[in-house]
Design goal:
29% helix, alpha/beta, Rossmann fold, four-stranded mixed β-sheet, 27% strand, 256 residues
Length: 256
């Protein structure tokens, strides 16, 4: 199918605050894969105080940040919460990474018991087990509905899914949501939450294309077939990351 002349509109939430470990690379990957197919990818950066109007967008991205960054955006995100929920219920695709993923749940409880409110897109909450606890750091390999997904995690919080949530993937290598139940991330309708940085989309072209496809369907209201791309470079990066994760998991002693 000829996709030239089509367009998707991307809302990038808090890029000036939530951009730890290069999450802005997800925008670069989406733009590249759209441009290679003749699709215009219009990105609007939305930060604290800016309105979010769901009808103006087809895809929503938010990256990660540490506790202090999450506190900076929390009140504004709660104000935007109803509009974001409306967007998700209309099947707008979403990618929320790490700190953004945590605040798309019900709440984040920090190591002192302080509560940072979330917006409840995903039925989950996150607790920090305290400063003495090990962080979940390292390379990750997941089994997902999009195939094998690779990335990198670095988080202190432990996320627990409620009965209304399903994981984004199952951990093959790495720690995932809480280093105990094998789950990673969450999904609701077309919204995906994950701890994976890396950034995640450049090394996982199938996931990037799935988001583009969902965004096109959201905008045009019909099934649109994406022409394939030459993913040799992306495939090498994916395979290399998977191999590194396997090697490092053998080299790292298991945690009790």
């Amino acid at each position: 199918m000829d996709t030239s002349g089509l367009q998707i509109r991307v809302a990038h939430l808090y890029p000036d605050v939530m951009n730890i470990y290069g999450d802005r690379g997800n925008v670069i990957a989406l733009r590249y894969r759209c441009r290679a197919r003749g699709i215009e990818c219009a990105v609007v950066e939305i930060t604290i105080g800016d309105p979010f109007v769901p009808a103006e967008f087809d895809l929503l991205l938010v990256g990660g940040g540490q506790d202090r960054e999450q506190r900076r955006i929390a009140d504004d995100l709660v104000e935007k919460g109803p509009a974001i929920r409306d967007a998700v219920e209309s099947d707008m695709p979403v990618l929320a990474v790490c700190g953004g993923f945590q605040l798309f749940g019900h709440r984040y409880v920090d190591h002192q018991g302080g509560i940072i409110p979330g917006i409840g897109i995903f039925d989950l909450e996150t607790h920090h087990p305290g400063p003495r606890a090990d962080r979940s750091i390292g390379d990750v390999v997941l089994e997902t509905d999009f195939g094998e997904i690779v990335g990198f995690e670095n988080h202190g919080g432990r996320t627990y899914l409620g009965p209304g949530a399903v994981p984004f993937g199952t951990v093959v290598r790495g720690f995932g949501n809480n280093a105990s139940d094998g789950s990673e991330g969450a999904r609701y309708r077309n919204a995906i939450g994950t701890y994976l940085h890396g950034s995640v989309l450049p090394k996982n072209p199938a996931l990037a294309d799935a988001l583009i496809h969902l965004a096109l369907r959201h905008r045009y209201g019909r099934e649109i077939e994406l022409p394939p791309l030459d993913d040799a470079t992306e495939s090498r990066a994916h395979s290399s990351a998977s191999a590194v994760a396997a090697r490092r998991s053998r080299e790292t002693p298991a945690r009790s």
